[in-house]
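Below: protein 1.
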Amino acid sequence: MSTKVTVELQRLPHADGLPQPAYQTAEAAGLDLMAAVPDSEPMTLAPGQHALVPTGLAIALPPGHEAQVRPRSGLAAKHGVTVLNSPGTIDADYRGEIKVILINHGQASFVIKRGERIAQMVVAPVVQAALVPVATLSATDRGAGGFGSTGR
């Protein structure tokens, strides 16, 4: 069972005519974000190239929440296109346009057209840490082992 949280959504002028972000299924975790590039000026990502893609949206998250911008698995699997800083974090106090940094890891150029679903956004609660300086940390069986220390 999912919990609903109210998020204010502002559509910027260059998002006119695009559908509002939506969950594609009843149990989906992420809302699809769409490219708000002009119809007459699609973006082309050459192999290895990255770009900042506008969505034409700004949001006001409630305090204690964040939004994560994540890749769409279909774009990654079929075209090698993914979110470069995955997951990108939108803090509750950010009010600017949501933009998605896409990178093309594929072999062919990828054209981003207006209205194309380019990423997904997941809204989640945030827990902030209260850091406590100490001289030493408690011991564990693992200790400082990392980067494959527990297996392949």
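Below: protein 2.
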Amino acid sequence: MNKMKVLLVDDEEELVSTMAERLSLRGIDADWSTSSEDALRKLERGRYDVAVLDVKIPRISGIELKKQMERKSPHTRFIFLTGHGSEADFKAGSAEAGPEFYLVKPVNIEDLIKKMDELIET
């Protein structure tokens, strides 16, 4: 099987770069971005199996970013993250991705990998 290719999008640079590094150490090809605009540019240049999006990204929200990414890349699957744990964020994220593909930060890397594997298999 080909190596899974993942795009992580979160405005917290330290968090998203560390997550990408930890995924890479586990054999997953992980790119990262700190803005929705940059994520869309990366999508123009490459194909991603899974996009992991923070619900609250400045300017273009994670929910809106998903909609734009789906138009450009219909095969990409999505997981949402939030650090706020608010009910409104949960409802927005779980409505878009399904509650089983919505994780609260700080994310356990093994849980994230498990969710990505589940998405790829469906």
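The mean pLDDT is 88.
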